[in-house]
């Protein structure tokens, strides 16, 4: 029997839908999302936690979903994993040469097998001398449980025109910064240029264009087409209601010819919709051009094909149906997972076994009390088939429950009736895009089995105790959500929590597992001023106040990304800061919002007194490159508020995390 541990930034909905759910359904697998761990602890906690899971879970394969977390892991971590005899398999969701490929290749020595969604990424590695057994082309697939048609549509010979609601639809994010519309993210420039062209084509042809996704209401031209956010479960229906799904894909090299094969190419086909996309040789290997998918090469061809297919319903339907059959026959995530784990010489992975833990949800303590009173004396018998009971009480929004770590414990612990677990509580999302729950936008706390109330904001402590049965003793609180109970002690323990009587259950066998089981978002009852503001912004404001007075020459390192976007938004509030420019290797020589952009080699001649690093993902690498320049400038890393430089620049500013209270 072999077990898989999947690790990565798994909070994003499309990752959950297309990787986490299928792998849990098909295999004996645990899936640990490191986003909450990284969002709440910055001291390498995530690596130590995962090593403990691996030591105790008898895993044979570590499946590393590398997107957005490669730089959060050390080489030492993977060395320890390999020393355990665990195979390490990585999947790169973005891997096109040159930008994304170069970001990945420096980490690939860690892995026994690299599965890349990009054929060009695979070919580049082979060209550089890689062993062909270490690299696998694994295009995206899709979750057929979310993207499908009913059987009547599949068997019908003609399309159903009654469901059509839109002429042309695009789903995707407006990839620009919020505070500076001149800064594009990844392939944002190519995407905007092509969608603007499409808008004017639709105007010429008297067609309606609808754009669904985050941020289109901010675009000066396309805002009139904005349709708002669409949840993943609604996307298939939107695709099916469109005559044409406009579905271009570009890599981070952000040029019209820098094509990329994306997840949504498979989702659109899986939904049974007709899609029109930019020419893509890789995609043409997966869907037959002209018969299962339609490509265009330039603006003129785009206009001609829209004008043709918008009026040829039967031909559109035949292409959509052929794509549907191809997608469901060859390109589901089930197909991809079988290819991947067959390619790692894993031949005896067992099917997933259900964890015998009963999750019971109650909206309030009062509802829990009514349930307990109505089942007095019978709870143990009613729940006796389960190894443990987990009570979730309150208005918490459950993002994830990961019981896999404690499953093996339940088989080993004979005389333990109460198992302590941990909760990541997101107290405020830093971004309005609920479809993309990224680690850099998560703002929360890790609640251990016993919580010192002096370590968390008062509002959070009061919220937990109001929402959930919680024992309080000697300045510490223990919420019921952080415990798994054996059925035989449920009545006794729950009664003690409801009556606030810790002594009633203190004599029971207790085990502190350290397992982070709960990933919750606080409900609307928690209201903390400025909670949506990242902690580094408060530190930045104090520093900018100081710089307005002493007029030191300030240089910002980092122009793109969410952190840089917020920094430049804050700079507008401090007009007397002596800002001499910003550094970005790819944008040097440009003037953006009146700020000159320089390259790294320009820094010595600029003679800054201070450099603020406004980059989260690449922040540590930037810091290393700036070390030789610390004789001339103080370097303040916004991504690391524990750096001692903050105590030097802003005495008494550090200590416990600032939650904006």
Superfamily at the CATH H level of the largest domain? Answer: Glycogen Phosphorylase B
Largest sheet: 7 strands, mixed
How many domains make up the 3D coordinates? 4
Radius of gyration: 27 Å
| Gross geometry | globular
- What is the CATH class of the largest domain? Alpha Beta
The helicity comes to 25-40%
List strands and helices in order, with pairings:
Elements lengths: L3 E5 L4 H14 L2 E5 L1 H6 L4 H13 L3 E5 L9 H9 L3 E6 L6 H7 L7 E4 L2 H9 L7 E3 L13 H5 L10 E6 L16 H18 L3 E4 L19 H9 L1 E5 L16 H8 L4 E4 L4 H4 L7 E3 L2 H11 L3 H18 L2 H10 L14 E6 L2 H10 L4 H4 L5 E6 L3 E5 L2 H9 L5 E9 L17 E4 L3 E2 L5 H10 L2 E4 L2 E4 L3 E3 L4 H9 L11 E12 L13 H16 L3 E4 L4 H10 L7 E5 L7 E2 L2 E4 L4 H4 L3 E4 L5 H8 L7 E4 L7 H5 L12
Parallel strand pairs: 1-2, 1-3, 3-4, 4-5, 5-6, 7-8, 7-9, 9-10, 10-11, 12-13, 15-21, 22-23, 22-26, 23-25, 26-27
Antiparallel strand pairs: 13-20, 14-21, 15-16, 15-20, 17-19, 18-19, 24-25
């Amino acid at each position: 029997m072999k077990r898989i541990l999947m690790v990565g930034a798994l909070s994003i909905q499309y990752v959950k839908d297309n990787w986490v759910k299928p792998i849990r359904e098909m295999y004996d697998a645990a899936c640990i999302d490191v986003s909450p761990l990284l969002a709440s602890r910055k001291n390498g906690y995530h690596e130590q936690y995962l090593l403990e899971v691996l030591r105790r879970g008898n895993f044979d394969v570590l499946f590393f979903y590398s997107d957005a977390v490669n730089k959060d892991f050390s080489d030492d971590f993977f060395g320890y994993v390999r020393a355990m005899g665990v195979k390490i398999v990585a999947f790169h969701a973005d891997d096109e040469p040159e930008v994304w490929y170069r970001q990945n290749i420096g980490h690939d020595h860690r892995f026994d097998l690299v599965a890349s969604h990009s054929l060009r990424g695979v070919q580049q590695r082979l060209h550089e001398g890689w062993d062909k057994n270490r690299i696998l082309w694994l295009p995206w697939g899709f979750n057929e449980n979310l993207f499908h048609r009913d059987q009547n549509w599949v068997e019908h010979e003609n399309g159903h025109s009654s469901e059509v609601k839109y002429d042309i639809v695009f789903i995707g994010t407006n990839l620009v910064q919020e505070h500076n519309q001149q800064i594009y993210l990844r392939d944002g420039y190519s995407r905007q240029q092509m969608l603007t062209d499409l808008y004017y084509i639709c105007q010429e042809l008297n067609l309606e264009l609808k754009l669904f996704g985050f941020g289109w209401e901010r675009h000066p031209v396309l805002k009139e087409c904005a349709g708002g956010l669409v949840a993943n479960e609604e996307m298939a229906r939107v695709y099916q209601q469109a005559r044409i799904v406009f579905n271009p894909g570009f890599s981070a090299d952000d040029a019209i010819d820098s094509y990329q094969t994306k997840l949504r190419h498979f989702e659109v086909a899986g939904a049974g919709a007709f899609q029109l996309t930019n020419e893509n040789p890789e995609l043409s290997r997966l869907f037959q051009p002209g018969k299962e998918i339609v490509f265009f090469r330039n603006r003129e061809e785009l206009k001609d094909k829209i004008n043709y297919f918008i009026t040829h319903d039967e031909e559109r339907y035949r292409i959509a149906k052929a794509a549907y059959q191809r997608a469901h026959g060859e390109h589901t995530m089930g197909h991809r997972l079988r290819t991947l784990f067959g390619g790692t010489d894993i031949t005896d992975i067992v099917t997933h076994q259900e964890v015998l833990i009963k999750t019971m949800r109650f909206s309030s303590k009062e509802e829990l009390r009514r349930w307990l009173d109505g089942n007095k004396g019978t709870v143990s018998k009613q729940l006796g088939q389960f190894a443990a009971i987990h009570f979730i009480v309150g208005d918490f929004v459950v993002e994830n429950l990961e019981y896999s770590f404690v499953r093996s414990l339940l088989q080993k612990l004979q005389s333990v009736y109460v198992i302590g677990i941990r909760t990541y509580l997101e107290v405020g999302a830093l971004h309005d895009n609920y479809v993309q729950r990224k680690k850099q936008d998560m703002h929360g706390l890790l609640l251990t089995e016993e919580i010192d109330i002096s370590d968390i904001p008062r509002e959070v402590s009061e919220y937990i105790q109001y929402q959930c049965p919680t024992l309080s003793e000697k300045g510490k609180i223990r919420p019921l959500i952080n415990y798994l109970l054996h059925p035989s002690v449920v009545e006794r323990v729950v009664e003690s929590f409801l009556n606030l009587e810790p002594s009633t259950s203190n004599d029971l066998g207790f085990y502190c597992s350290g397992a982070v089981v709960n990933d919750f978002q606080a409900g609307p009852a928690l209201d903390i001023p400025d909670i949506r503001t990242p902690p580094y912004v408060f530190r930045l404001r104090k520093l900018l106040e100081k710089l307005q007075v002493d007029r030191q020459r300030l240089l910002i390192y980092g122009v793109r990304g969410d952190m840089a976007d917020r920094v430049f938004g804050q700079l507008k509030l401090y007009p007397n800061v002596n800002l001499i420019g910003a550094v970005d290797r790819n944008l040097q020589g440009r003037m953006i919002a009146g700020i000159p952009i320089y390259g790294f080699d320009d820094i010595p001649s600029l003679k800054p007194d201070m450099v603020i690093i406004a980059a989260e993902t690449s922040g540590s690498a930037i810091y290393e490159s700036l070390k030789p320049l610390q004789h001339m400038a103080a370097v303040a890393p916004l991504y690391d508020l524990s750096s001692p430089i903050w105590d030097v620049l802003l005495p008494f500013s550090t200590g416990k995390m600032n939650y904006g209270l």
